[in-house]
Specification:
The chain is α+β, with helices and mostly antiparallel strands. 33% of the residues lie in helices and 22% in strands. The protein is globular and about 45 Å long. Bound molecules: adenosine-5'-diphosphate and magnesium ion.
Length: 195
């Protein structure tokens, strides 16, 4: 098992045809709001093809559990919270690493928002690091939402949430920009919160 958070467990699986290692996130929908979240995650990932967005392969439901399983690339360097802690112990994030993180994640978010998708939960736990080159990819679109206008429900993680989201005001893609800023601040300062 690779990890588990609020909505799913994540396992490493092997593709039968070529032995490739992939990741499988299993999200149970014992609650109706869970099912909506899984649908949002799959719908968002299917529209995204970017080098710094978690690569999506397939999804299938299992009515016997009941759950939905989402197959994605397997990212082997842990998440950005773990990466930040490793770098902190080794003396801090280097300027070149900070540049790679910043450039890659801004590119990923530009791609996401150009497709009318709000991520709504950008934070270090939801950024995964590829061990081969320490490059990041944006993951966990579990509370993403496709929108043409504004959203107003309060979702996300307080330390990385934009003020308008915390206070229940209408918000748009700029809230994701705030969360990305807070996430990058966390990484380059070795784990400090913006507020
Ligand atoms: N494709 C993956 N490759 C490697 N690790 C993953 C992958 N997906 C998730 N993880 C690990 O599992 C954790 C939780 O996954 P996430 O998609 O954020 O689920 P949740 O909705 O439960 O927060 C991540 O922080 C990461 O450590
Ligand atoms: Mg998560």
């Amino acid at each position: 098992m690779l990890g588990h958070g609020s909505f799913g467990r994540v396992f490493v699986v092997r593709r039968y045809s070529d032995g490739a290692e992939l990741a499988m996130k299993e999200v149970r929908f014992d609650r109706a709001d869970n099912l909506d979240m899984v649908r949002a995650e799959v719908a968002a990932l299917m529209h995204l093809h970017h080098p710094h967005v978690l690569r999506y392969y397939d999804s299938m439901s299992d009515p016997a559990v009941p759950c939905l399983r989402i197959i994605t690339e397997h990212v082997t360097g842990g998440n950005l919270t773990e990466f930040t802690e490793r770098q902190r112990l080794a003396g801090g994030v280097l300027p070149d690493q900070a540049r790679v993180l910043t450039r890659s994640l801004i590119g990923a978010l530009a791609h996401v928002s150009a497709r009318g998708i709000l991520h709504r939960d950008i934070k270090p736990d939801n950024v995964l690091i590829r061990a081969a080159d320490d490059s990041p990819c944006l993951a966990d679109f579990g509370v993403a939402r496709m929108t043409r206008g504004h959203a107003s429900s309060v979702v996300g993680t307080p330390a990385f949430m934009a003020p308008e989201v915390c206070t229940g005001m209408p918000y748009d893609g700029r809230a994701d920009v705030w969360s990305l800023g807070a996430t990058l601040y966390f990484a380059v300062t070795g784990g400090r919160f913006l507020f």
